[in-house]
């Protein structure tokens, strides 16, 4: 069978999805084939150009055409956050599976509506937290779950980049509109939170400190925009498991280009990852011989989940787009199987959003805030 | 227009090529599209299975069918070295372009025959030295060629892995047959030599020391095989430019999984790469402020050749397969343009092989050996 | 002139001080020479042995002998925290200068009494926060103060080791007695706080989360001890300058042996240190050429404060004891000059302690807590 | 008893020795105490100043005074290479023990004369190859000797710095005089060779390539000097054990400040050190669990030779001067014990020099050269 994909949006992430569909088809033995069928963008001309470039058969300037088209099996949403809800709800209503970029929604209330609609309609959903798909993430989770590092008592995660550091770069007003979500908390913080939940479990309480550092920026429209969204956040977190720690995010961290990482400490060891080195995990265990103790640098290889489909040789390295290809594989397998949604689905993204919202509220009130 | 690809071989590299054709088509705006048309393997059943898995439309158990098929534009050879010559010469004679995995041939004499045949026939050729395609390699070359590190006087390169370290692993007799080339000198040494030539230029003299460390191995056929090919080599090298240095290769280097790298020293700076971290280059220049001098760690990003087509964000990292996709892009552009072959072509691979042959001869005679 | 030293305590730190006095005398051109004169320990026999081993001329089993001895100029206290107050107040009353190991006191109230007594008596004081003496710390401070990384808006610091991770190691009851200070917050947290204050400035508010992970330990006396002090802490911090960030400490961080470090972010760059690599600082500035941006790895060298006295060649590295020797140099210079106490003095240690106390209170009450 | 030290020379190394004598006395429980007694330098005034600064009791402008002085037990020579022979032979003749900086002599013939004189006279000797004293070196040797990495078949070592890279720096004519030894081969190459011999064993054959890159330099005397000594060398080496590999040295390696290191490969593992990180060793063994294989980063700690005397806590790091202090400890123990010289003695330094000489000859003749 063939799954027909309808893509809305052809920017950074739209393009990344198109590449990933192609790569996933070549790398994995997918249960169904996928066809890049219909691409929607802001207008017909833009969509037509993008469709040619990204390998879609058809294009449209109206995303509703894609919802209405019975040929489309999966609606793939890569537009700005603010538009996710309307598009996803329409797709769900039309009975289509929905694959949506992160963050799912500007806040938990919206994410909840989207989640409940999807669950009620019985369609499959997936959200693009691609770093969960890194074989190194799977390795970290396996090490934790197997007890190799004992009882885990703390987690320290962060996502830092520097793409908003230049105060003179022109910005699109929508991009920093608080209605889209709270700046870096939503954009990068959601990655860190999703990883924290994935490897440690639910977060039950947070105390966060959100800051706006650059409070005015010039816009692409020649005006000046007052900035109210968060540029940098640090939060204390408490997990349901009893583990504690911190989560941070910054888009002003000079020199950090892809610094999403975490350190997990247990009673018998610890592990550290930093996805600026996407294929590496450092592992320390307390069972080592005296005088020979040290952190071990593991390189991703065929012994780790999903790696071998890309390459049989260890240390040869996957790239950013390869994580997206694994995500596509999981999407297709999830859609084809009779069971649950692929992970992470809308509900998981809603849970992530609840943590994000709690961080924002905690910071506003300068208190610890529980996630009920 | 569409270029039709005929692939011979569906192992590690055959599969990597198939993935790369798919990814390259999605990532780059190729001048012609490519079609994975006909796949040949050792027998019809094997070929049929592989064709399905790798996305080829047709299959055959006889590679000559592929040569004879007028629909095929490019013959892509990923079989063991020993078979390259016969296949390539047949393809050349049939007027097809040839894309062949490295090393091109077991020795320079064979590589020369292949090169001259291709040049006489006027077909385009390319050889799969994929590490030349790394944006980091292009960056290294740009830094050297621009004079940023002054006059380059030395180069130290090596390729070390450990996949042959286990003396008890069963090996296929053909694999370690000296007629296929001299073990690691051919297999990994050729990568190091091709990089050395690419960033520094021609090598004119070598003094090499080749060793066989594990001199007996059990075969997949239940026998024991005496090993005569090289397990590890170190060589002193002299370049036409006057630069000097070393080139090494080992497939017994415990812990090294993809340790292909080099260090280049100039009168105004130096640079270091190690492709176990495929996206990094360390650069030191002598023009730094006192007290603020240091090696700078550059992460591949959109400012570097070919990166931006994969991702607009720096530090997000390409993987091994992405280098192969760049190679495919260069192949297609080279084939489509009226001009020269894409680089590196058969002639370049022949030049690499001459250095390899000189290393082997130098080691046999324990002397410096010139490349005439 | 000669400064006569009276040392109380001959354990880990007593010994480190003795080594440092010797090294400092050889490395630096001290304004006065120092003489290791009288050593006091728990009893006369122990003291006599230690004096011989550490190079002291005389010894005593009663530390009060040392206070009463008019020959002694500087009283050097390296006993457990709980004993600092009594000894320091006696020394101050006797008009002696006091050099005391960190943390100065179990809490800020005690530290305040000690500080005020010293200031009233007009004696010089110094506290052994040796990491402030690292040339790399001076370099970090110089980079920050010069504006090289712009306006600093965040700091993330921590000190993690793993020496308390083994739950079966026998502990001395006094060591984990809450009256000595709150476990790792006092022991390692004080290092992180002192560095934060040194490079960024006063901290005005904290929200901390202190945890006891291993809540029972066997004692050297054959009993089991319930543990109530902190094993691990994470805190949000706000500086008077407006900068914000985090400070953490753990003595259960498997694999971390000397992981005291910090990251400072500014509007024009950032810097990172980790004293498990005592001689390195990573610096990123935004003024770099496109395509050549990267973190620079600076190695301590003669261009940096105090390094050249140890070695004229860069990159040759100072060790832990060398930091202590720089501390001694600053102590002697501070005592000899007519002006202020050497830094950090009791008052600075008191300010550090106030932050520590605020962390503990914040954690107890689960709120932000101001340092008035 | 007390050993009285007579030091000749008070430059970089003279000063390092004085510091090391002080630190060693404080750190180690030496069998005899040492007294910095008499310092000789080029003239009386210089010597007097240096003696005060370095803590010597007496001084002289004529080194022969020191030889003639019956109070002196150990003559410590830190003058330029060219002067070692005369001074050492005089000291030996006077029945004194001799501690001499490396390289011992400008060539093996001289080193042999010095060695034979010392052995005939029955005095103890030691040469300052301080990196042999690094606890990390002892760890590497222990790992190799214990068989933990199996049969060692290759070694790759080098010492690279960049202190001669600036072609405009004024140089002292004697420094680059070929009669002092062949430039970097002698200066840094000797460190790499001594380490190679220490951890692997005797070298029996070499093929070297020595280059002069900067062939003219301005002198401190206002003239221009033609440079004929080696700036950079690479050599193939063969050990008596059957192991092979490379040794290199450069003083033009931009960015390298203390890059003395080596990689050792065996049939069951490998290890890597780089003394720009003096306290680290990376170890890989083949006995690791599948999916958990990786290089382990060992930090020097109390489990390793000589470390604990400096500090009981692991990862706290020794510095360059600490290695010299260990050397002094070995010197004193060697001199006091009735047995052999401390290692490395003159004979060992002579063996190192034979390898250096063979490299130079090999390069001159462009052939492999045996060490008979």
What does this structure look like?
4 copies of one chain form a homotetramer. In chain A, 32% of the residues lie in helices and 26% in strands. Chain A is of the alpha/beta class. Chain A folds into 2 domains: 2-130, Rossmann fold (3-Layer(aba) Sandwich); 132-317 and 350-365, 2-Layer Sandwich (Dihydrodipicolinate Reductase, domain 2). The longest helix of chain A has 20 residues, at 346-365. Chain A starts with a strand and ends with a strand. In chain A, 63% of the residues are buried. The model of chain A has no long low-confidence stretch (mean pLDDT 97). The interface between A and C is large, with 43 and 43 residues.
Number of strand elements of chain A = 17
Profile the largest sheet of chain A.
9 strands, mixed
* CATH structural fold name of the largest domain in chain A: Dihydrodipicolinate Reductase, domain 2
Q: How many domains comprise the coordinates of chain A?
A: 2
Q: What is the 3D form of chain A?
A: globular
Question: Structural class of the helices, strands and pairings of chain A?
Answer: alpha/beta
> What is the CATH superfamily label of the largest domain in chain A?
Dihydrodipicolinate Reductase, domain 2
Largest interface: A-C, 43 and 43 residues
Please give the CATH architecture of the largest domain in chain A: 2-Layer Sandwich
Oligomer: homotetramer
How helical, in percent, are the residues of chain A? 25-40%
For the biggest β-sheet of chain A, the strand order reads 16-15-14-13-7-12-11-8-17
